[in-house]
Amino acid sequence: MDKKESFHWADLAADNVIQQKGDKDSYTVAAGITPSGIIHIGNFREIITVDLIKRALEKKGKKLRFIYSWDDYDRFRKVPKNIPEEFEKYVGMPIADIPDPFKCHKSYAEHFEKELEESLPPVGISPEFIMQDEMYKACKYTEGIKKALQNKSKIIEILNRYRSEHLLDDWYPINLYCSECKKDSTKVLQYDGDYEIKYECACGFKEKIDFRKKGNVNLKWRVDWPMRWEYEKVDFEPAGKDHYAAGGSRTTGKEIAEDVYNYNNPTDLIYEWIGLKGGKQFSSSAGNVITLNDVLEVYEPEIVRYLFAGTRPNTEFAISFDTDVLKIYSDYDKLEKIYFGKEEISKEKLPKQKRIYELSSINLPQEIPFQPSFRHLTMLVQIYKGDVEKVLDHYEKNKKTELRAKLAHNWIQKHAPEEFKFELQTQAKAELKEQEKQALRLLTEKLKNNDYDETTLFEEFYSICKELNLKNTEFFTAAYKTLINKEKGPRLASFILAVGKKEIIKILETIK
Ligand SMILES: [Zn+2]
Ligand SMILES: [Zn+2]
Fold first, then answer.
1. Ion ligand 2 contact residues with beta carbon within 5 A
2. Element counts in the chain: helices (H) and strands (E)
3. Which of 133, 124, 129 is nearest to 39 (CA)?
4. Of the bound ligands, which one is closest to the alpha carbon of residue 110?
5. How many angstroms is it from 125 CA to the middle of ligand 1?
């Protein structure tokens, strides 16, 4: 059998890391981004890809360091859509040094950093965050900067291989922030070949700095990345497919790492984009940007992990907010049953399925957890108008059921298609045929005098129809119209039992 069929991709990728970087006791895996705006779910794919490979390496007995670099010493390039126009005045400054447009954090960068940082622990991911503005300002990368400056012509040569507009000799691989106006509108006048740079700024300021002592220098992205691979001794870092195009930053980064920093490219992996399916709440005005927190409003953390662990990184997929949500929950419950041997599956498929479950878990349960049906919960939360406490009366209370009920409620409120929504009526308003009324009256009597489970009640509907010579579809439509004022609705027997006989009888008795 093909190796890919029987092994999980994260385990194969971990093997790759060991093969390429050597069999060591510990490894450093990395990810990172410039927090220039909302960190969306596509960026999360990078983070969880690293986390899954970290776990795969740990399973092989390795020690792991997972670093996440915030490139917050990068320049503020342009004002994004949802940011006030007046921020134009900060273009050219480091994003860690400009104010938070939402006024709730220390800086622009921190605003977007914190949102992501706080959303990761719930999905079982806790990287070590490295703030590039702190590293650069504290002159931690002095030697890396010197190497870049000393090898400027080598870097120009590498970059020019992929550029139609060639970089000239007066180009430097750095952004130098002016000490006076804080912007990078500076020009290097002289580099002494060691640690001193003389520059002048468009604001008129001129200065000579020693970058061992003054952290004004930020390496340009294409050089900064390989410099940090060497600085942190990164063994594995994936990247989005755009970085891998000919002349993409991963391609040039590999060459710069080898030629300038004498460092072997970390083991890499390409990950694909994430799409969006359904999700009424995400209007195009917000640019269809969804975050991990948005996904966590509908999916349990383990299921979020499952979506990514169950899909190869090089496969594009969409996060669904439409009725697929129901299927994904039931698929996950099925996977859990398979893991705990409660559902049959072919021997060949079993190991990989079990591995997907392990990698999806946050704390691997010892025995199969209770699985309240998500579909059933979407009905209960509507019956109780979002009162989760009342919904929980139907179950033995536990944290998982409580969370699932809340998520079902979120889904109904924010994303569920109209046909899924209903409101329990208190008064029968529908126009019914005499025969339909008779059938519902008969149902009322039956409910008063008998106890049912879902199966026996379902059978009762059919015997009522038979007795009154009514079409089944007419009976169901009449019942839905009376109870929820819609032509269709949730499975009638389970709905009636969930609402409770007493309540249903009260409504049916208002039929005139
Ligand atoms: Zn803020
Ligand atoms: Zn200036």
1. 178, 180-181, 201, 203, 205
2. 21, 12
3. 129
4. 1
5. 22
DSSP per-residue letters across 10-50? HHHHHHHHHHHH-S-SEEEEEEEE--SS---HHHHHHHHHH
Which ligand does the CA of 181 lie closest to? 2
Task: Give kind and range of the element (H or E) at residue 201.
Answer: strand 196-201
Q: What are the structure tokens assigned to 139, written together?
A: 């002159």
Please report which ligand is nearest the Cα atom of 204. 2
The amino acid that residue 451 corresponds to is D
Ligand 1 ion: residues within 5 Å (CB):
100, 102, 104-105, 111
CA distances from 294 to 80, 290, 291, 416 (A): 20, 6, 5, 14
What domains, with CATH codes, occur in the chain? Answer: 3-164+221-271 (3.40.50.620), 274-360 (no CATH), 370-415 (no CATH), 422-512 (1.10.10.350)
Q: Are 311 and 41 in contact (CB under 8 A)?
A: no
Nearest ligand to the CA of 99 is 1
Closest ligand to the CA of 104: 1
Angle at 131 between CA 70 and CA 270, to 5 degrees: 30
> Distance (Å, rounded) from C-alpha 438 to C-alpha 440?
5
Straight-line distance from the first to the last Cα atom of the chain, in angstroms, rounded to the nearest whole number:
68
**pTM confidence score:** 0.92
Query: How much is the pLDDT for 279?
Result: 75
| Collapsed DSSP state (helix, strand, coil) of residue 104 | coil
Can you spell out the DSSP letters for 135-171?
Answer: HHHTTTTHHHHHHHHHTHHHHHHHHHTT-SS---TT-
Amino acid at 1: M
Whole-number pLDDT of residue 241: 85
Ligand at minimal distance from the CA of 111 is: 1
At residue 419 the predicted structure's pLDDT band, cuts being 50, 70 and 90, is: confident
CB 77 within 8 A of CB 36: yes
